[in-house]
Amino acid sequence: MSPRQSQISVPLIRAWLNDCESNHHNTCSRSVLEERQGLPVNLLLIDVEFQAIVEAKSSMRYVALSYVWGQIDCFQTTKSTLESLQSRHGLLRQSSRLPAVIKDALAFVAAMGERYLWVDTLCIVQDDADLKHRDIHQMDVIYSHAILTIVVLSGKDANTNIPGIRPGSRTEWKSKAFGNHQCIPSPLSLQRALEVAPLEQRAWTMQERMLSPRCVYFTNQQVYFQC
């Protein structure tokens, strides 16, 4: 991927995912992870195609999202909104209320050719004490059973776009002239990108990253894939 591109290369990320799923059976496969994290559990997922919340199991193929919620009034699933969100295009009808990070995650999952997405604000019924308790206590299974976790390292809250999903949402790297030479800055290592990321201040981050079989990390300049 050229460092000058302002948008990500979805086919490249898809190729990374396919390579891992095809060749890393003994280390990254779902069967290995499910042995470690137990049997599938019940959960809610977003059906990206129908733009609706559906009842599901963690054995289904889905992508998870890890991001900074931040100090904003974020649209949530509640007992009063769940039924409408479970109808076809229920999320589409609430599009204006969804934060940028969730809109971009939905677009990315669709572009990757995947069907389902798990996001805490929408897939946990926030005012149902029993369901919320269930989901918080099975968070390890939710992330370990996801085929891929989107990790948004940039942005202080959910109203920040995922860099590179939409045109102009990522900083282009510009070369600088030194005599007869054109130099392009070297990207940060993943470790350094993690150290300076706002996401690393979030309490659940370590669990989400460490338990996910694969992560695709987004920064303002770069995308990293780790499995």
TrEMBL record:
Residues 62-208 form the Heterokaryon incompatibility domain. Pfam families: HET. InterPro entries: HET (IPR010730). It comes from the Eukaryota. This is HET-domain-containing protein. It comes from Mytilinidion resinicola.
